[in-house]
Amino acid sequence: MSDDALLTILIAMLGGAIRVSTPFMFVALGETLTEKSGRINLGLEGNLVLGAMVAYAISYQTGNPWAGVLAAGVSGIFLGALHGVICGLPRVNDIAVGLAMMSFGTGLAFFFGKPYIQPSAPRLDPLPLGGWADNTALQRALDVNPLFFLGILVAIVMWWALANTRWGLVLRMTGDSEPAARAMGVHPNQVRLISTALGGFLAGVGGAFLSLSYPGSWNEGLSSGQGLMAVALVIFARWNPLRCIVAALLFGAAGAIGPALQSVGISQGYYFFNAAPYILTLLIMIGSARSKAAAREVPGELSITK
Amino acid sequence: MAEKAAIPVGALIVSVALFSIFLLFFGKSPIEYFSLVWRGGFGTAFSFQNTLQRAAPIILTGLAFAMTAQIGLTMIGAEGALVLGGFAAAAIAIPLVQAELPPALVMPVMLLAGMAAGGGWVALTGWLRHARGVNETISSLLLTYIAIAIMNFFVEGALRDPASANKPSTMPIGKEYMVGNIPGTDVHWGFAFGVGLAILLYLLMSRTTFGFAARVMGGNPRAALAQGLPVGTLVLACSAIAGACAGLAGYFEVAAIHGQANASLVARYGFTGILVSFLARHNPLAVVPVAILFGAIAASGGLIQRRMDMPDATALVLQGIIFVVLLASETLQGRFAIFRAGGK
Question: I need a labelling partner for A74 at 20 to 30 A (CA). Which of A136, A176, B165, B186 fits?
Answer without folding.
Answer: A176
